[in-house]
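Schema walk-through. Below, the input block comes first and the output block second. Nothing else is stored per chain. Lengths vary across the set, and this one has 243 residues.
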Amino acid sequence: MSISAAPQLGMTWIFWSKMKSNILSWLVAILVPLALIGLGMRALLTPAFLKIEYNMPYFPPDEYGFSTEDRLRWAPYALEYLVNNADISYLGDLVFDDGSPLYNERELSHMEDVKVVTLSALNIWYISLALITMLGIWSWRGGWTQAYRQGLRRGGWLMVGVAGVIGLIVVIGISINPNVFWNFFVGFHGLFFEGDTWLFLYSDTLIRLFPLRFWQDAFLFAAIIALGGGVGLGLGLRSQGET
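--- output ---
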């Protein structure tokens, strides 16, 4: 190798090293919102959220007779079904005190679809967390922790933007124009479900347990969690010295 070729090889190595760090940094930035959205979603799939939501003073009563206690009795079964390994009989076998089924066939079919979407989303969450962790270890061993931290910050601010938009849609839908949230809600369902399979009668159990206000608060609650995580990454890491 000639002496003149050595600087060129050195510059090439530096170029590709920086490019690799930039690519991996942006990969981290993309993974962060997936991880934070997944965190918010998982928090919603808990009895604790149901207790908080159903006891809100503004939460609409069920005109067909469910009390708060009734909702807290039946709703946890729906959430548990979405994250367990049971088949649809887990919900299909549920009956009211008079022996009539809790859910009709249309509702059960939809819940099967929801379970597929939910488990897929949770798997994406698990994968994003695993990748962020592995990339963090790689950055420490490979000497690109600064790029990794920059990716976390970028992802945090990206999440702030997305969560802010969702939160704004919910707030406008609640306080100013209900159609704003409804149109968002319809579009959201259109991404995952066919036709009108997710629409039900007001007298159906799913609507009685999970009326529109439930979903408004669910999206807002998830957005707040994701927003908090995004701000924490965006500002918290910036306040620490780079390594």
